[in-house]
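Amino Acid Chain and Its Fold in Token Form
===========================================
What this section holds: a protein sequence and its matching fold, both as plain text.
Structure line: whole-number tokens from a learned vocabulary of local backbone shapes, matched to residues.
Purpose: to set a sequence beside its fold so the mapping can be learned.
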Amino acid sequence: MNDYVLEAQGVSKRFRRGEKHSSLRDAVPALARRLLRRGTASDRAQQDFWALTDVGFQVKRGEAFGIIGGNGAGKSTILKLLTGIMHPTSGTIRIAGRVSALIEVGAGFHRDLTGRENVFMNGAILGLSRQEIEKRFDAIVAFSGLEEFIDTPVKRYSSGMFARLGFSVAAHVDPDVLLVDEVLSVGDYVFQRKCVERMNAVIASGVTIVFVSHNLRELANLCPRSMLLEKGRVQMIGPTEDVISTYFGRGQQARVPDATNDVFITQVSIRDEHGSAVDFTSGGKLSITVEARGQVRRDDMSVVVQIVDDHQYPVFDTCTQRLGAGEITVDRDQSLRCTFEMDNFLAQGTYHVNAYLHRYLTNLPYDRWMSAGTFFVSGAPEARGVVTLHPRLVECEVGSSAGAVARQPGVSDGPQA
């Protein structure tokens, strides 16, 4: 028995670039050429755009499979092919079972209808019968948290409420194959956690998931295996952490030196106790290495590393001067390598590394590399913010009217190890 529920072999997709004409004088001859098919093969080839070229991959039953790539890599195109919205120019796609897509939550909602009416309409669009929707209706509404507004027209919903109801409907379709595209960030923080928990439950139930997202931390948490697309071609298929490392590495190739810089940063790498890494656990070790090269002699240099969150808000920074290295001297064509090791008390999230070379006393910049590296931290879901201080609840008491104190269950008499 074939254990693969989804297979793509040699899939390519061609689009034709549209012609733009600034005058009727240009538009009429172009129309005549198309009608008379006078365009040469070379002309037609120049108008062709291949969004995907010879893409092939297989997904096992019950597997969560990620697709990673920058804008224009072909991720949305492959999802449209998998859903049947478009057909490949060449190649074959085979999917065994019922397919559902969490691509645009709330698509098909009618703003003048109530939430209840839209649940039934959207469920029908997603392939559910009326009986199936009625069976799932209470669970859908409870998941969305919109019980008191379910009979209100959705045009009065906030954008977050609208998205929550749309996700709730799509998340209860129970397909064999679920296609997910950038929908785990709808609603507030609490609802986003519910979305992730729902995805984990779907995976545990044996549903096959193909997940596309720029939120690489969530993708890494959900998908053990992923595919890297670049300009419509498969660059790598393998363990998600290795694929993400390759993706970042391609975007952070060795820099071309700026002729105006006295010294320049050539490489920034991030490691854990075992080697190069992008996925870290809160409470472990984190090291950042900055490599640089001089173009002229510098006797007064300091190396700075800064960690910022996903909104570029500074979380922490340090430098060689503050750590006791003194002023660093680099001669022309001489290389420099500095490694900073630190305890990782960051809370769960996505973080970026900025690296700087500057004169410490006057803060004169020689070179800087913003977002030179990116990494994820997991393992502290109970923390809110950017750091975890490893809190322990040592006292929580409620006084009674008689003056006695009732200790809350589960609270110890002191710190726990």
Summary: The longest strand covers residues 364-378. The chain has two domains: 4-244, 254-378. The first helix runs from residue 24 to 36. Residues 411-417 have pLDDT under 50 and may be disordered.
